[in-house]
Amino acid sequence: MSESKLQLVLKTAKGTKDWADKDMVIRQHIFETLTKIFKKHGAITIDTPVFELKEILQGKYGEDSKLIYDLKDQGGELCSLRYDLTVPFARFVAMNNLDKIKRYHIAKVYRRDQPAMTKGRMREFYQCDFDVAGTYDAMIPDSEVMSILVDGLTSLGIDDFKIKLNHRKILDGIFQIAGVKDEDIRKISSAVDKLDKAPWEDVKKEITVEKGQTEEVAEIIGKYVKLKGSLQEVIEILEKDEGILANEKAMEGLKDIKLLKDYVESMEIDSYISFDLSLARGLDYYTGLIYEAVTAASAPPKDAQEKKEQALKEKSSKKSKKAAKNAGEEDDASAYVGVGSIAAGGRYDNLVAMFSEATGKKNSPQIPCVGVSFGVERIFSIIKARSNLDKISSVSTQVYVMAFGGGPEWNGLTSDRLRILKKLWDNGIEAEHMYKGKVNPRKQFDAAEKSGAQIAVILGKEEYLEEGKLRIKKLGPEYSDDDGELVDAKDFVQLVQTKLAEMKEANGGLDEITKLVKGI
Amino acid sequence: MSESKLQLVLKTAKGTKDWADKDMVIRQHIFETLTKIFKKHGAITIDTPVFELKEILQGKYGEDSKLIYDLKDQGGELCSLRYDLTVPFARFVAMNNLDKIKRYHIAKVYRRDQPAMTKGRMREFYQCDFDVAGTYDAMIPDSEVMSILVDGLTSLGIDDFKIKLNHRKILDGIFQIAGVKDEDIRKISSAVDKLDKAPWEDVKKEITVEKGQTEEVAEIIGKYVKLKGSLQEVIEILEKDEGILANEKAMEGLKDIKLLKDYVESMEIDSYISFDLSLARGLDYYTGLIYEAVTAASAPPKDAQEKKEQALKEKSSKKSKKAAKNAGEEDDASAYVGVGSIAAGGRYDNLVAMFSEATGKKNSPQIPCVGVSFGVERIFSIIKARSNLDKISSVSTQVYVMAFGGGPEWNGLTSDRLRILKKLWDNGIEAEHMYKGKVNPRKQFDAAEKSGAQIAVILGKEEYLEEGKLRIKKLGPEYSDDDGELVDAKDFVQLVQTKLAEMKEANGGLDEITKLVKGI
């Protein structure tokens, strides 16, 4: 017992992990794909610190605030790790008195939540956010954000998704129609948000028994929030509904939705959208359109409840056996949760002004914002689950430099190899060699194969030392008969480039990671 | 007083800052340039969490450990923000039982140090690390790392740097020759390391008065550590030195240096290197070659001491006036420090085994490592100080879509604009429009100019609605006479692409950020 205490356990902290090799290649490809899309829409990028002053984050996340990581008080300011990229963005806009900005931000955020590692639900994870701040005409930036959402997912080979969409003003209108008091709206809203995971009966019970609304109120809410379908279908129903027609807030929202319908039809992305009146989203700061993209992997497994109970039973039996104090640190919910939404966002028109006003400025201008956030690890888990990674290489090596020779004075020509390598590097060519003086050819070919190099540049003892020649040979099983071509050592680079171009053309020109993600 | 307490101060935490606009363009260019170089050398990339278990970092940084940020104990594991990328790398290698790996890692690290923001010395900053782990022949990976260091800085337009280089075994040998006890070596070493900032007399005083060595010991140390010059020059002196010749450790180091000299000469990077026996480097874990790159901006200003005293005086006078409690948080040392080294590294052969052994494994294999770390913010500050950023654009917009028209039924053709934009986006073209329904042409041209777009796609009321035509016009003062070209709306994309290619060719084909960094 005391011995194990002295020993270090080599691990990463709970809910975090190292990324390497092919996983990194996929994740980098996700970043690059999304970055290219964000840039297509004229966004700049910003980078804010990983930690913010604690008070910047306070009061922004409702009951999720308990999941915020704080830094230890080591003297000086009290700080917390950022929980999302939206609040730091709003702080940035307010702090710099910007009246408009279009930005993307790809960075890590932190939540002390129950992890489900294989489902991409982690304590340290990336968000890829695109947001438009500024006062514009209704639904024009919003519809562009929807098109970015579609472009982002389809570019990553995900086509079987649905965008659940709703409008906070319509939702709030419904609660008013049902007779919910204004101060109760957010908590009833969060009950309704559970409709994707629980049957209406459970949600109704929460609304009435737990949250004190009458049966009648619940029934009216139920009538509306069970509505979903295409924008066209649900608009038609709402336009004939007397409750909606008489409610100012709901009508404002409906006007937005009708405009949005025109715009997404013009962009031919309407087929992805499901207008779903049960979507509420947890965060307090949304004020208009809200949406989230889901796929088949988003939902928990059918037997989630059983699996969860099983996991809890195992955990408590471990505890009763007085297992190591932090066995609980190993908990993982992967068995009984789904991937969840893979991208989500909405309109938040008051967050920037909230910051400006908190600094004591009177009459701070409202800076309306709308944005979307892609959940990279969740998207990653979907791509990885469906892909064969065999062909992906995590290194870019194109050329392997080797030296063949022997005899008593043979030294492996290390200095000469380095001279050759330097020329390749200076010409932008990815090239490696074995970090050894004397090695036999077999080992060098094996190392070249492992590196994924396509060309060998060989310093043969006689060829190089007596004739000043290098041998350039194509690698790979299909070129096993290729003896290579001799070339003057002083202009070998051009021949290497020619052969690399030939091989790239033979391979179809597309890199393996693009083929994999696109399912080609 | 009480009012100001209620008000939020919108700021980032001490020693951290937001990055945006052109600064981001420069920094991204640094990342991309270094990434390309790292990939040329066959490295994979890894990503480790921002925080590690506290015990992983403990005992690795000597007296700098006090600068580590800890997370608050909120239940569960105790964690700290990473201090560098080297210790997490060694943890990764040990945890995965790797016997070799070549990796690069570009990520933020955290140090609770006195910031000097305009000199790129911050509490949150990026490191760009390249490391080779594995058992190889002497100096082969080391010399490749030196070539990466040279390639990295010259590719970023920095040519006027010097690599100060030394060998821990030679340094330790010198201390043995002088008669320093083994247990005192590291503290004498850190005194010697100050020779780049202080005269020998001050260093000698520290060695004798503060650190208890005799005058004689100090004199012998002084004789050696004042030596510096080309590899050739210093090797010649050491090879004739009887003390060195009789010291086993120093001779081992010298053998390495002689081999290195051959290799760096083969790669023609020897002219950058200054063999400087006073270089010691603070970190405990180095065991062989150590080096750091410096430029003219690295040193503090000549009147640093006066400026520092001035700053301290101002600070204490503020305090005496009972200024706000955390006025101290604003301290910045930019006025009296230099940029410091802009890249540094060395060989650390024992760090991985230290982790393996701490887990209780007996006879863990030694995994020797060598690497280099680029200080991005410091390099950034040099590039920014010498550059004219006027031509740099922080957005990539190529095309601006406009609608011209008027009259009572004019609606701005928003849906049509979105249809046109979607086609551009789908073809990978960066395109924007104004997020407004009806806007006059002047405002649209102004917005296009601000966006940096090169081409306007214009929906003219009659041309578009009656003839189904779009007008494609080049933008910019040199094309003010261009009335544009009418094209069928269904195949306008090709004409846009042709015109963009023409304009790119006219511009020389090089992007502005490359021209700026390279000083073209």
From TrEMBL, chains A, B:
A GO cellular-component term linked to this record: cytosol
EC top class, as a word: ligase
GO MF annotations in UniProt: ATP binding; histidine-tRNA ligase activity; RNA binding
Stretches for region Disordered: 301-326
One of the protein's GO biological processes: mitochondrial translation
EC code(s) of this entry: 6.1.1.21
Record flagged with keyword Ligase: yes
Aminoacyl-transfer RNA synthetases class-II family profile domain span: 1-408
Predominant localisation class: cytoplasm
Residue numbers binding L-histidine: D84, L85, T86, R111, Q127, D131, R281, Y285, Y286
Any Pfam family: tRNA-synt_His
Compositionally biased residues, Basic and acidic residues: 303-317
Cell location: Cytoplasm
Keyword tags: Aminoacyl-tRNA synthetase, ATP-binding, Cytoplasm, Ligase, Nucleotide-binding, Protein biosynthesis
Reactions listed under catalytic activity: tRNA(His) + L-histidine + ATP = L-histidyl-tRNA(His) + AMP + diphosphate + H(+)
Record carries keyword Cytoplasm: yes
InterPro entries: aa-tRNA-synth_II, aa-tRNA-synth_II/BPL/LPL, Anticodon-bd, Anticodon-bd_dom_sf, HisRS-like_core, HisRS/HisZ
Protein family membership: Belongs to the class-II aminoacyl-tRNA synthetase family.
Task of the protein: Catalyzes the aminoacylation of histidyl-tRNA in both the cytoplasm and the mitochondrion.
Protein name: Histidine--tRNA ligase, mitochondrial
Organism: Hanseniaspora uvarum
Lineage of origin: Eukaryota, Fungi, Dikarya, Ascomycota, Saccharomycotina
